[in-house]
Write a structure and sequence with these properties.
By secondary structure, the protein is an alpha+beta fold. It has two domains: 73 residues, no CATH class; 78 residues. Helices cover 20% and strands 38% of the residues. The protein has three helices and ten strands; from the N terminus they run αβββαβββββαββ. The termini are far apart.
Length: 168
């Protein structure tokens, strides 16, 4: 079996490293979905609507990067398609949301591969936290970072960096 066939089946997740990210400001479009009864189709519809409205957002720091901050509880999750902006002052178009993610330390992993994620970068982050005796910070959002030119890539693979906030 050649290397590409192996990647097509299982993907690649890097080793976990820790990084410090400065405060970040985002403008985006949220979608809220119930785990049990949710319409998961609203996720892709929300992404499409965000892509159509992205040109309305001023002060985008890097237009080649799509951020997807999210948080969840046992009942539902909120996922936000967003871009990082320099300022939120008069910069949030109607119907979108602007918010600030405080500076924090993160455990991060890079994933390249098919869906479903295999190996799962979130499992890798959880294992790392357990091995290092670290707790995920509950009050901050997890961040997913995508490059637009590799998002929905024709090779069918996903390219994403996942940042899980950790204490310390």
């Amino acid at each position: 079996m050649n290397e590409q066939s192996q990647v097509d089946k299982t993907g690649f997740a890097s080793e976990v490293v820790t990084v410090h990210l400065d405060e970040m400001k985002f403008v985006g479009l949220p979608v809220i979905v119930s785990f049990k009864d949710g319409d998961y189709g609203t996720i892709s519809k929300t992404k499409q609507l965000f892509m159509e409205r992205m040109g309305e957002i001023e002060g985008v720091i890097n237009p080649d990067i799509l951020w997807a901050p999210w948080y969840a509880n046992d009942i539902m999750f909120t996922y936000v398609y967003a871009v990082q902006v320099a300022s939120l002052d008069n910069n949030v178009p109607e119907g979108l949301v602007g918010f600030t993610q405080p500076a924090a330390r993160y455990a991060t992993v890079h994933y390249e591969g098919p869906l479903p994620w295999e190996p799962d970068p979130y499992e890798r982050l959880q294992t790392y936290r357990q091995q290092e005796g670290l707790e995920q910070v509950k009050g901050l959002m997890v961040l997913e970072k995508y490059e637009f030119d590799r998002e929905d890539h024709p090779d069918g693979l996903l390219y994403v960096d996942v940042f899980g906030p950790i204490q310390g």
